[in-house]
Design a protein that fits this description.
single chain; about 350 residues; Rossmann fold; three-stranded mixed β-sheet; globular
């Protein structure tokens, strides 16, 4: 493994709070750019971990707004790799304010790419979303199919992919990753994600309430997500430059996810209740390409992530599952800021 100087935007969000310590443990120098919008839980967990004594010298934090040119310029300086996780995250949260979602998920990405190239960054790994596909009838939704986003979140994720792809050039390798819904334990825990929410309900109430149930929701474990991003810092750039990869290996219906959780927690005699829903969003993706091109093999599964989340919850990690900090839409308090857009208007 070649040690890198890696900037992780959103490095103390849900995925970032697991990725940042993982990269440090692998021997990389890691700088995090994060506004700390969703509490400081990820940073606290890192600082309290036993291994931080040996990795502290390779860690730095730039606390600030992804839309601020001066902050971003300081964050990218001296980096050779960027893993871009920072975003207004998930479809419902993105619907709160389209302009805000555009500013963070599109305008800021263009500025970040520009400043990264100027700073001499060599590799840019962009976390997009499988939701860019919208509703598809094809049995295998591959990267060759046209995105058809249904929400502001997926619309600006799709548009930012175009920026990332267009920026790819000799000396600046860019790649888009389209993860399925991520599930599992993180110090900055989310319970507004399908698997996590159903698992928490099963443990707390002994009842899983499924709204609809026939919608397919591809999921991928957070353990897989952090392993993939780490792997992408090392792979031959010719395999990934300018390309997009789907990333999600379990295309289950919501009712099937509920039954899987019920089986994993069978000692608790969990009941499943089904109700109607207006949410007909249906995602199903093929990840054949990432297996074929990169040789990626899953290291986790929904079942394993459910078991890990159970251990965390039963160990008292999150005493108040209903706390607003675990739900992006409830907790998000951030205003519009056009500084990233202004950067291109000078």
């Amino acid at each position: 493994m070649i040690p890198r100087n890696i900037l992780v935007t959103g490095g103390f969000g849900y995925v970032g709070s697991r990725l940042t310590p993982h990269l440090l443990d692998l021997g990389h120098r890691v700088r995090v750019l994060d506004s700390m919008l969703y509490t400081r839980a990820g940073l606290t967990a890192l600082e309290q971990s036993p291994q931080f004594a040996t990795t502290r010298a390779r860690f730095a934090l730039v606390e600030g707004d992804l839309r601020d040119p001066q902050t971003v310029e300081r964050a990218v300086s001296g980096m050779d790799t960027i893993i871009h996780l920072g975003a207004i995250s998930n479809d419902p949260t993105g619907e709160i304010d389209e302009v805000l979602t555009r500013q963070v998920n599109f305008d800021a990405v263009g500025m970040l790419l520009s400043l990264a190239r100027t700073a001499g960054v060599k590799r840019f790994i962009n976390a997009s979303s499988s939701s860019v596909f919208g509703i598809k009838n094809e049995s295998d939704v591959t990267e060759r199919l046209e995105p058809e986003p249904l929400t502001f979140y997926s619309k600006y994720k799709m548009l930012s992919e175009w920026l990332v792809t267009a920026a790819n050039s000799p000396g600046f390798c860019t790649v888009n990753i389209r993860p399925a819904t991520i599930c599992g334990y993180s110090p900055r825990q989310r319970f507004d994600l399908t698997v996590n929410k159903l698992t928490a309900d099963a443990l707390r109430k002994r009842v899983i309430t499924v709204h609809g149930g026939e919608q397919r929701r591809p999921n991928v474990g957070i353990t897989d997500a952090i392993h993939l991003y780490a792997q992408l810092t090392q792979v031959d750039e010719n395999l990934i430059a300018g390309r997009a990869f789907n990333f999600g290996f379990e295309n289950l219906k919501v009712i099937e996810i509920a039954r899987l959780i019920q089986e994993e927690l069978q000692d608790l005699n969990v009941e499943i209740k089904v109700t109607d829903t207006l949410d007909k969003r249906d995602y199903h993706i093929s990840s054949e390409k990432i297996v074929r091109v990169l040789g990626y093999q899953p290291v986790s599964s929904i079942r394993q992530e459910v078991a890990a989340l159970r251990r965390a919850l039963e160990g008292g990690a999150f005493p108040d599952i209903d706390a607003a900090e675990h739900y992006n839409m409830k907790f998000m308090q951030i205003g519009r800021r056009a500084s990233a857009y202004d950067y291109f208007s000078r």
